[in-house]
Q: What sequence folds into this?
């Protein structure tokens, strides 16, 4: 089957230090893949390159057969959505954040849907009017995820999004993402350390500690 995303001989160096070396990853439509590996091995760097936030020093990222350096960032980001390890919220309120994906598509935010989405992630309706400065780390992470899910992307890139969540919210986020993969056929590339999450993936990609090369054959089946 043809991959929706391919990472091809990807490398990243800063100041003569190799962060990533010859990384090869293939992701299929509807596939749920995890990336794991020791702290500092380059997981976040790899995800940011795939999100087109930083440029690789060698190799390429191919989305639907096209090198992403030839795709406009706006077009790409509507299809490949990235949730950072430390979520970046903007504006004043939660509403500002959840309305944003609607506004860039010149659509009026559906407030009933926003409230419904908040409740699916155990956040009360009043959260919509809250200042982003009043939110806990776990609440910020869930708001950021809800913002990314207002219009379903083809690929969801998630960087340790459950590490600030308690056990019950962690489970809930896991269930929602797994359900989306099953029902909407989106692909997920999820960076995690959580052994529980690792057990439930289709495919686990382990990055080595020393920037060594990774071939696709080294993936393990979960
Ligand atoms: N902008 C940067 N400048 C210098 N070093 C960086 C930069 N970004 C990341 N690194 C280094 O690259 C390595 C990989 O970082 P990162 O991708 O955040 O790892 P992980 O997410 O696996 O913990 C680390 O050694 C980190 O210190
Ligand atoms: Mg990281």
A:
């Amino acid at each position: 089957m043809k991959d929706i995303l391919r990472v091809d001989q990807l490398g990243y160096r800063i100041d003569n230090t190799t962060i990533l070396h010859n990384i090869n990853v293939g992701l299929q439509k509807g596939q749920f893949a995890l990336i794991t590996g020791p702290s500092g091995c380059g997981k976040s760097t790899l995800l940011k390159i795939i999100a087109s936030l930083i440029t690789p020093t060698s190799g390429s990222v191919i989305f639907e057969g096209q090198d992403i350096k030839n795709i406009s960032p706006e077009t790409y980001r509507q299809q490949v959505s990235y949730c950072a390890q430390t979520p970046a919220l903007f504006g004043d309120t939660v509403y500002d954040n959840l309305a944003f994906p609607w506004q860039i598509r010149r659509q009026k935010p559906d407030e009933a849907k926003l409230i419904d989405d908040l409740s699916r992630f155990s956040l009360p309706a009043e959260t919509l009017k809250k200042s982003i400065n009043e939110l806990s780390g776990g609440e910020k992470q869930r708001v950021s995820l809800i913002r990314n899910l207002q219009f379903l992307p083809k690929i969801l890139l998630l960087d340790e999004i459950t590490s600030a969540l308690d056990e019950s919210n962690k489970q809930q986020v896991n269930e929602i993402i797994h359900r989306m993969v099953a029902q909407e056929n989106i692909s997920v590339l999820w960076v995690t350390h959580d052994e529980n999450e690792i057990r439930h993936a289709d495919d686990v990609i382990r990055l080595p500690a020393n920037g060594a090369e990774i071939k696709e054959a080294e993936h393990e089946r979960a």
Remarks:
- The chain has a mean pLDDT of 91.
